[in-house]
Design goal:
Penicillin-binding_protein_2; Penicillin-binding protein 2a (Domain 2); alpha+beta; cell wall biogenesis/degradation; Beta-lactamase; five-stranded antiparallel sheet; single chain
């Protein structure tokens, strides 16, 4: 009996019997369903996690894995060279050396690590607090190394190389330099290291790349930048290099051919700089366009900046990095009068025979104080003037009346005037291929009511009719309007660049001329009258730019003076084109806070015209 019980116990506890018994017990369907659902859920979670790691963070983990097994040495690519219209190089790339910090290779002891970086900072003549702040603020998830210095001199290179400091690496690179740093600063711009925002906007960028930050360098950065090469050094588990391989060769950036005439640009800069110095002033603009196709021959902003030492200009007086030529908003003064005259003739409020008398001022009743009427001044009494004399003499009274009306003279009114501003594209950007351009500002009754809670008055129309008040334009927009008058009514997109050329001389991109608006049919009936008036500005003895009359070619022009800051300062403008019959150059000169109004711009304009005639037109 005992033996039977022992056998039964052994049979029950044995694996054989237990397995046989289980095999005989059927499982319910819900067990299989539960297992299937559970397994499916696990699969979905794993799949989603893998998809997230691969699609969203794949690049990050791939780079981290590469770091753990290898060192990647970047072979920098030189940026493409920028040339002027005659093939003169405006930029160059010179060999340089960059210093990098790689924390994982620094000594393990924390105090020794800090002491090492401090010593390197001292050798590089960099303030330790600045280096410390940069290290703390860096996003180390993007890269495991940090650039400490973008360019070191030969002595520093030798000292660091001799010390052979762990965690500090030197890589050969290129430094972007500019042949005429101040003269062409706002045309060419400058380059700088990328930041996290740049990398989010462009997945092709690496943390140590340099990109264009302003001007042509920024606008055409995708062409100029090129592609860095990479050489990978593979290590074993002990950190020893087992193999090295060039995984990508560096490809130089493409060249940029421009429409800029470098010699003209330099002359414009030096001549304007000289005039500002004589006046004791420091801010000015000069632009030269070909009105027949929109080519930008020269574009000068003073003050300029030196891209080789950009940090010293970031907080300098008069904001040297601000491109007033394309981003500054100004009252255009009397340079807007050709447009107002054209509008008045086209709207039929005057004819070429209409004469208006200027005694030096007009007065309007003051509803708030009848004993003190509002007085609007001419710059001098001009007597009876028609459209030709009004432009030549720059009579304010004539343009007050044809724009806003007075007594028996009807005016076109602010609504029609604004439509003509729009026709001449003053609210729009010109589309010039430089970064940071702005459009102008066109005031109207609705704007004034909403902003100031006041109605638009006739006096407001008077002010904007002579380029004062709240009417604002950019210098490039103002010159583009003058160019349209010069060429018969076509607005060309201003073009600084001409083409992009690869290393084999093949044109990859051609910046062809583009007509952005054509109002030839709208203005053809009266355009010749406006052109005649602008010619009289120079040709007549009473013209405001008569000092240009002795040039060996005919010039059409308009001067302008705009009072700003409650009449405490005066900005002076000159705009004009030549030769009168078949113009191939239109220029603008602006002097901020001038002493004698437009008289301070005319000599500069005259010398620019003469230089162009002697050095370009005759040849």
């Amino acid at each position: 009996m005992k033996n039977r019980q022992n056998i039964d116990l052994e049979d029950v506890l044995s694996d054989r019997v237990f397995a046989a018994d289980l095999a005989e017990i059927p499982l319910a369907d819900k067990v299989f369903k539960f297992f299937s659902i559970f397994a499916g859920a696990i699969f979905v979670v794993i799949f989603l996690r893998l998809a997230y790691l691969n699609a969203v963070q794949g690049a990050f983990f791939e780079s981290r894995a590469a770091v753990n097994m290898s060192d990647i040495k970047v072979q920098p690519s030189p940026r493409g060279i920028i040339f002027d219209r005659f093939g003169k190089p405006l930029t160059s790339n010179i060999p340089s050396n960059k210093v990098f910090l790689l924390p994982r290779d620094l000594p393990e002891n924390p105090d020794e690590r800090i002491r090492t970086v401090k010593n390197v900072s001292a050798i590089l003549n960099l303030p330790w607090e600045d280096v410390k702040k940069t290290i703390e603020e860096k996003d180390w998830g993007q890269s495991d190394r940090m650039i400490i210095s973008s360019d070191i001199n030969h002595d520093t290179l030798m000292e660091l190389t001799a010390l052979d400091i762990r965690g500090i690496y030197i890589e050969p690179s290129f430094k972007r330099t500019y042949e005429f740093p101040l003269e062409l600063s706002h045309v060419l711009g400058y380059t700088g290291l990328v930041n996290s925002d740049d990398m989010e906007n462009d997945s092709d960028l690496a943390i140590d790349d340099e990109i264009g930050r302003l001007g042509l360098e920024a606008y055409y950065d995708g062409y100029l930048r090129g592609t860095n090469g990479e050489e990978v050094f593979y290590r074993n588990s002990r950190g020893r290099i087992e193999d090295q391989r060039a995984v990508q060769k560096a490809v130089s950036g493409m060249s940029l051919q421009t429409n800029i005439d470098a010699d003209l640009q330099i002359f414009m800069y030096e001549r304007l700089m000289s005039a500002l110095s004589e006046l004791g002033r420091s801010v000015g603009v000069a632009i030269a366009l070909n009105p027949q196709n929109g080519e930008v021959l020269g574009l000068v902003n003073i003050p300029g900046f030196d891209a080789d030492n950009i940090t010293s200009f970031l907080e300098a007086p008069n904001d040297p990095l601000f491109s007033r030529a394309i981003s500054g908003l100004y009252n255009p003064g009397s340079t807007i009068k050709p447009l107002v005259g054209l509008a008045a003739l086209s709207e039929g409020v005057v004819t070429t025979q209409t004469k208006i008398f200027s005694k030096g001022y007009i007065e309007l009743p003051n509803p708030y104080n009848p004993s003190e009427p509002s007085r609007f001044l001419d710059w001098r009494p001009n007597g009876w003037v028609d459209i030709y004399d009004a432009l030549a003499k720059s009579s304010n009274i004539y343009f007050y009346e044809v724009a806003g009306g007075f007594e028996n003279q009807k005016g076109i009114g602010i609504d029609a005037l604004k439509s003509w501003w729009k026709k001449f594209l003053f609210a729009d950007k010109t589309g010039i291929d430089l970064t940071g351009e702005r459009g102008g500002f066109l005031p109207d009754p609705d704007w004034k009511k909403s902003l100031r809670g006041e109605p638009w008055r006739v006096g407001d129309t008077y002010n904007v009719a002579i380029g004062q008040g709240d009417f604002l334009v950019t210098p490039i927009g103002l010159l583009n309007y003058i160019s349209a008058i010069a060429n018969g009514g076509k607005f060309y997109k201003p073009r600084v660049a001409r083409s992009v050329v690869d290393s084999e001389g093949k044109e990859i991109f051609v910046n062809t001329q583009e007509v952005i608006s054509d109002i030839s049919d709208d203005i053809k009936e009266h355009l010749s009258d406006i052109r005649t008036g602008m010619r009289n500005v120079v040709a007549k003895s009473y013209g405001t730019a008569r000092s240009l009359s002795d040039l060996p070619f005919a010039v059409a022009a308009k001067t302008g003076t705009a009072q700003i800051q409650n009449n405490m300062k005066t900005n002076a403008f000159f705009v004009g084109y030549a030769p009168y019959e078949n113009p191939n150059i239109a220029i603008l000169v602006l002097v901020e806070n001038s002493k004698e109004g437009s008289l301070n711009t005319i000599p500069v304009a005259k010398d620019i015209f003469m230089w162009y005639y002697q050095n370009r037109s005759e040849n």
